[in-house]
């Protein structure tokens, strides 16, 4: 479930359990129902699991200059495609190998298929004559912070995440 701030700013993805606690304790309201979603029953009440909830009170979010790099966010940035051959990506590769001083950062990591990753090993692209199919840049925007916490995006969340989320 997607958690929005009181200002409808996306905060994070929540587990169903945490979302139910927020709803029952009147700390959050349902913004987008999930008609096909499950319903949780207790002795005194039943709660339909929504896909998007919003906090009733504003929560100040500390400013972070960079989006944390996670496997899920990197794969989403590269659209699950190998940066070398364009095939289906399964692994993450350091363009400048860590054994040669390469950093574990947005600007040095790409999604890669296993055969290309194995073939490249600890070599530089110039040694192999390979090129990258897309630039290695750090993403920006609230939906990227969400992607660093969750591997998948519910299509109903897109309207709350702003431009560039799709």
From TrEMBL:
Any one GO MF annotation of this record: endonuclease activity
Presence of the UniProt keyword Lipid biosynthesis in the record: no
Domain of life: Bacteria
Signal sequence bounds: none
Domain HNH nuclease: 69-118
Keyword Hydrolase set for record: yes
InterPro entries listed in its UniProt record: HNH (IPR002711), HNH_nuc (IPR003615), NA-targeting_endonuclease (IPR052892)
Keywords: Endonuclease, Hydrolase, Nuclease
Protein name, per record: HNH endonuclease
Organism: Nocardia terrae
Lineage of the organism: Bacteria, Bacillati, Actinomycetota, Actinomycetes, Mycobacteriales
